[in-house]
Write a structure and sequence with these properties.
This protein has 209 residues and is of the alpha/beta class. The protein has 7 helices and 6 strands, in the order E-E-H-H-H-E-H-E-H-E-H-E-H. Helix content is 33%, strand content 15%.
Length: 209
């Protein structure tokens, strides 16, 4: 097991915590991690893009001019893709970009991301984040004391906490997630990860199920 310091909101050492190797000591699998991130980003796409083909554009039912003896090229509709205001050829249409990844692959990808984060010294454990009411100033002060000011930070909580969420949502680069919503992309895209002691315990409990 890897041992890591536990700090309070003033960056004072309050204890030690053992992180299980089966979660934070996994040999990173770059291929699985890449597949999980691509899958996550693809599933975020709405796929609602659409343009009109010549059959969808209103009008153009009448032949612009007769077929022969005008000296002009033949034309059957003013909504031809060759005409201004006409339809689009092979344009994007609504589609579903989502695809699935095996459950074991998802878990391995998350463990790989967490292990890499810990190995790079980018994981910080805090005993608790106690804010009585939503105040961005207090959250900024906590991040500053922990040396996270100006750094993209993923705050991981054991459960939903509206006070912390509202205190951090206006801070650029800071994201708040609960343990059950943790995914490899968010872990990898942030330069630091701030977890509470209860978050680690919840993560271990979830992994054992």
């Amino acid at each position: 097991m890897a041992e890591i310091d536990i700090k309070d909101k003033n960056n004072n050492l309050t204890g030690k915590l053992d992180l299980p190797d089966e979660i934070f000591g996994v040999k990173a699998k770059a291929g699985v991690l890449h597949s999980a991130i691509v899958c996550y980003l693809a599933n975020q796409r709405q796929g609602t893009h659409a343009v009109k083909s010549r059959g969808m554009v209103r009008g153009g039912g009448r032949k612009p001019w007769k077929q022969k003896h005008t000296g002009r090229a033949r034309a059957g509709s003013s909504r031809s893709p060759l005409w201004r205001g006409g339809g689009t050829v092979f344009g994007p249409q609504p589609r579903d970009y989502s695809h699935a990844l095996p459950r074991k692959a998802k878990r391995l990808a998350l463990k790989s991301a967490l292990s890499e984060k810990l190995a790079d010294g980018e994981v910080i454990i805090i005993d608790e984040i106690a804010i009585e009411r939503p105040r961005t100033r207090e959250m900024v002060a906590i991040l500053k004391s922990l040396g996270l000011e100006g750094k993209s930070t993923l705050i991981v909580l054991p459960e939903n906490n509206d006070v912390i969420l509202r205190s951090a949502r206006n801070i650029p680069g800071v994201t708040v997630q609960r343990v059950l919503d943790l995914n490899p992309y968010e872990v990898a895209v942030h330069s630091r990860m701030l977890m509470t002691r209860q978050s680690v315990e919840k993560l271990v409990e979830t992994d054992s199920k």
